[in-house]
Amino acid sequence: MDELFYFVFDGLPRLGPGDDSYTRKAFNSLPIFPDHAHILDIGCGTGNQTLELARLTYCQILALDNHEPFLRKLIQRAKQEKLDKRISTVKGDMHCLPFSEAEFDLIWSEGSIYIIGFEKGLNEWRKYLKPGGYIVVTELTWVNDNSPLEVVEFFKNEYPDMKTDLENKNVIKRSGFDLIRDFKLPKSGWWNHYYQPLESRIIKLRKDHPNDHELLELLDYVQFEIDIYKKYGDYFGYIFYVMKRSSLSY
Asked: Does the pLDDT of residue 248 top 80, yes or no?
């Protein structure tokens, strides 16, 4: 099923909601950043945010993902933009990062920390930051009260630990971080480069593979996710959290 999933998303401009301008907004929320700093991008996928970070700074960036074809695609894109000398990749598992403590000045993770869990990710990744280092993530969040039952039931299966913004901020504090800034990814970040191309891809795959029942079942589920956002996108969304490792002892 994993290979089928990768097949569905092959060639899409993004593998999840996002927007380069909001990556820039988050990065520009940080204090002046030294050019010799080291950045770790966790769950990089094919690297939209990795490339944007490389455009914004002269830092060395290490991009981690568990799917080798995504990493190859990222390096290919980096070479096309002549950014490959400052971007390197490693195949790895975010649950068990192969790095030393206090190795990075900045950890970045767009649309992927939910895989390990927001609180667990912050607690486990904190040790890889230098004292006073920064972490920037996007987290899927309830942004409106009284969500309809259909969307609540959907996320009970997809992301049962999803919290409200206030709950996330409490997690940030007790995980040893100071919040610098937070803001919501707009709906255009879901549609323009993600759901619209994905819907077009679904239509094409249905026409090209009318008898592949396993694929069609997956396409039905992906379309259902899109339909959930169409109907209930006012009730949930991705929030950027820009944080600094606290100077307090934990």
From this structure: no
